[in-house]
Amino acid sequence: MLVLVRHGESEWNKLNLFTGWRDVELSERGVEEARKAGHALKEAGFTFDIAFTSALKRAQHTLDIILEELGQTDIPIERDQALNERDYGDLAGLNKDAARERWGEEQVHIWRRSYDTPPPGGESLKDTAERVLPYYEDKILPLVKEGKDVIVSAHGNSLRALIMKLDDLSRDEVTQLNLATGVPIVYKIDADGSVAEKRELSI
Fold first, then answer.
1. pLDDT tens per residue, range 114-147
2. Residue-number span of the structural domain to which 109 is assigned
3. Contact 92/103 with Cβ under 8 angstroms?
4. What element of type H or E holds 29?
5. 160 among annotated binding-site residues
6. CATH no. for residue 156?
7. Measured between alpha carbons, how far is residue 156 from residues 80, 84, 104, 146, 185 in Å?
8. Total count of domains within the chain
């Protein structure tokens, strides 16, 4: 079983700022979202053998809270920047509305949602996928194929890149994919690595 969770709301999410690799904390709402995610997983009977998260504390803190709710604070945790949010480059730290005023609605939309057009100094979703997917295939998928129950706490775009592969989405389809903060997405993966079942837990 593979469970993916986008971190709870961060302080910069709340302020409508581009975050990327900037290392910001969860907001109070984000902490509560993480607790609800952990509670939902506990109520559904989930336990995990190993956890993966990014090198950024908003994802790590979300994972810590979930595992605390599950009473599983002692399981192995792998932290790697391969699972980091996409790097927003020159946009990082800027208010999204201010960015639209500076560069125009259409250009900012292209940077945020296109598959292969990066913002200045940053990564596209394609760039993000090129680090996320090899890590998934090398480190995470083999464990899932062995029958391990794995949870991944990461970010909107690193998880979009992974879900694009898991759900076999086109470039156009993935641009429409939005992931809510703190909502667990559960995948049952067959021995060949294909998806047998997918569902979201309500929190």
1. 899 999 999 999 999 999 999 999 999 999 999 9
2. 2-200
3. no
4. helix 28-43
5. no
6. 3.40.50.1240
7. 16, 9, 23, 27, 12
8. 1
For the question of residue 146 being annotated catalytic, the response is: no
Tens of pLDDT, residues 23-35: 999 999 999 999 9
- 79 assigned binding-site residue: no
Complete edge-to-edge strand list for the sheet that includes strand 77-79: 77-79, 50-53, 150-154, 2-6, 185-189, 195-200
Token couple for 100: 């639209």
pLDDT in tens, 146-184: 999 999 999 999 999 999 999 999 988 998 899 999 999
Q: Which of 33, 69, 85, 123 is catalytic?
A: 85
* N-terminal to C-terminal alpha carbon distance within the chain: 19
Is 27:75 a contact under the CB 8 Å cutoff? no
In this structure, is the dihedral angle defined by the CA atoms of residues 189, 187, 167 and 110, taken in order, positive or negative?
negative
Decide: 170 and 163 in contact? Cβ < 8 Å: no
Catalytic site residue from 7, 33, 123, 155:
7
Q: Is 33 a catalytic residue?
A: no
